Amino acid sequence: ELPPSEFMQVADSTWLVLSVVSNGREPSGCQATGVTKIARSVIVPLAEHHVSVLMLSTYQTDFILVRERDLPVVIHTLAGEFDIYKEESGECVPVTCDDVSNGFLKPKPAASPTLHPVQSPQTRFCVLTVAPDTLPAIATMLIDVLFYSHSPPREAGAGNQDLDSITFFSFSLIEGYISIVMDAETQKRFPSNLLLTSSTGELWRMVRIGGQPLGFDECGIVAQIAEPLAAADISAYYISTFNFDHALVPEEGIAEVIELLQQRQESGR
């Protein structure tokens, strides 16, 4: 419904949303959440089969966006590990490999993913939600933060490995569930009794991936971050955007995360 505009860029692909639902068979000792929870079973296998993904972690769950044309490869890749369903008229219908066998092309062997530079700003972030019925009480503040409190984009050269701070605000409304990521200073502008977070109220630090806009054709970017963090059992919330990718990790673990990613980068050279 948006009118064409010279100020709006649109990716040339149509994307489908995958959500991974646990069936309760996970090991009880697994504490990692977010993208690392599905790294080995979903993210890495898709990267190995040359499937480009966009990742969206929310307060409630995680979503993986894949290009519609890649759906046959996605289903063939994941069918051995997961029961796959598609939604039709509000009902979940099982999907089998036979349903998408026509036109399926076996992917070429995957090359090693490019190891993009990572930057870690000093900004501390909160992952929050808000009850839908209280949204009107903060609507004016949300509009102000979303549209009037931004700073001009800063150029991020490949050599700029450490940012003092970063402007980042994410608001998502998915099937009535609201998820917000904001920095700790911005959070102070909102009524504290309306914003809900985990009982521990932890703060998060960010790792931004890419020295320049990444585009949508390259695969393995999410796996580059998720795989080593999953191996170290470190939680991470991951948000892909039009220009960059962003991983949020617990504040107390940021030093270990940076060391892991630097080791991975050096080993790939």
TrEMBL record:
Keywords from the UniProt entry: Cytoplasm, Phosphoprotein, Ubl conjugation
Highest taxon, organism lineage: Eukaryota
GO cellular component terms listed in the entry, alphabetical order: cytosol
GO biological process: negative regulation of TORC1 signaling
Subcellular location: Cytoplasm, Cytosol
Stretches assigned to the Cytosolic arginine sensor for mTORC1 subunit 1/2 ACT-like domain: 116-199
GO molecular function per UniProt: arginine binding; identical protein binding
Pfam families: ACT_7, CASTOR1_ACT-like
Keyword Acyltransferase belongs to the record: no
UniProt domain CASTOR ACT: residue ranges: 11-78, 201-262
Family in the record: Belongs to the GATS family.
PANTHER family in the record: CHROMOSOME 1, WHOLE GENOME SHOTGUN SEQUENCE, CYTOSOLIC ARGININE SENSOR FOR MTORC1 SUBUNIT 1
Functional summary from the UniProt entry: Functions as an intracellular arginine sensor within the amino acid-sensing branch of the TORC1 signaling pathway. As a homodimer or a heterodimer with CASTOR2, binds and inhibits the GATOR subcomplex GATOR2 and thereby mTORC1. Binding of arginine to CASTOR1 allosterically disrupts the interaction of CASTOR1-containing dimers with GATOR2 which can in turn activate mTORC1 and the TORC1 signaling pathway.
Subunit structure: Forms homodimers and heterodimers with CASTOR2. Interacts with the GATOR2 complex which is composed of MIOS, SEC13, SEH1L, WDR24 and WDR59; the interaction is negatively regulated by arginine. Interacts with TM4SF5; the interaction is positively regulated by leucine and is negatively regulated by arginine.
Annotated protein name in UniProt: Cytosolic arginine sensor for mTORC1 subunit 1
Organism of provenance: Balaeniceps rex
